[in-house]
Design a protein that fits this description.
Length: 198
């Protein structure tokens, strides 16, 4: 939410960066969707921190609703799966389900501003593929060769800027709720829509 909708083009490509909790995550994404309909997206990238780096792969599906739910408030339900591989044999699986909301602000010319936020409930599984490769990474959280899991929430808030109905930049603050690593992070997304418009 906060990005150009699929009425500005049925194909969306983008980049995102998240900084916080002792690391930085960078990824690129591609999505396909119908105006005011179902969409899907995949992303790949990497995460770096003091303990090393790892690969990120994720996917999400959602639904653009055809009309605001209350007044000008728009809602977009979304579900996703995120995987992290590394460093040092470490892995994560994150399953999310939630909703994004957007509220349009006064616009100027071809530039639109949208208050963007949302909440996602998440279930995380994490562990090590090989107990000989711990390397100190989250050693305090996991026993050797073991696995762990937890439920938590993600609260996002920011402002989206949309240019010409196709180009989007959305800076946000992400606040984890009920998570063992509870420090907020800063997230920025950029995207552009291509293809058929409506």
């Amino acid at each position: 939410m906060g990005q150009a909708s699929y009425t500005g083009g049925t194909v969306k490509v983008g980049m995102s960066a998240e900084v916080g909790n002792g690391g930085t995550a960078l990824s690129g994404s591609a999505g396909l969707g119908r105006p005011h309909g179902i969409f899907g997206a995949v992303a790949a990238g990497f995460v770096t921190g003091s303990d090393g780096s790892g690969a990120l792969v994720s996917g999400a599906v959602g639904k653009e609703l055809g009309r605001p739910i209350v007044g000008k408030l728009e809602l977009c339900p979304v579900a996703g799966l995120g995987l992290q591989f590394g460093p040092s044999g470490y892995y994560e699986r994150n399953y999310t389900l939630g909703a994004m909301v957007g509220y349009p602000l006064p616009s100027s010319g071809g530039m639109r501003f949208i208050l963007a936020g949302g909440y996602q409930g998440a279930y995380q599984q994490l562990g090590f593929h090989d107990d000989t490769q711990l390397g100190g990474y989250r050693r305090a959280d996991l026993s050797a060769g073991g696995a762990n899991h937890e439920w938590y929430g993600l609260l996002d808030a920011g402002v989206g800027v949309i240019l010409s109905g196709r180009f989007s930049v959305v800076p946000q603050v992400r606040i984890p709720l009920g998570y063992s690593s509870s420090d907020p992070s800063f997230l920025i997304r950029g995207s552009v829509n291509f293809g058929k418009t409506n």
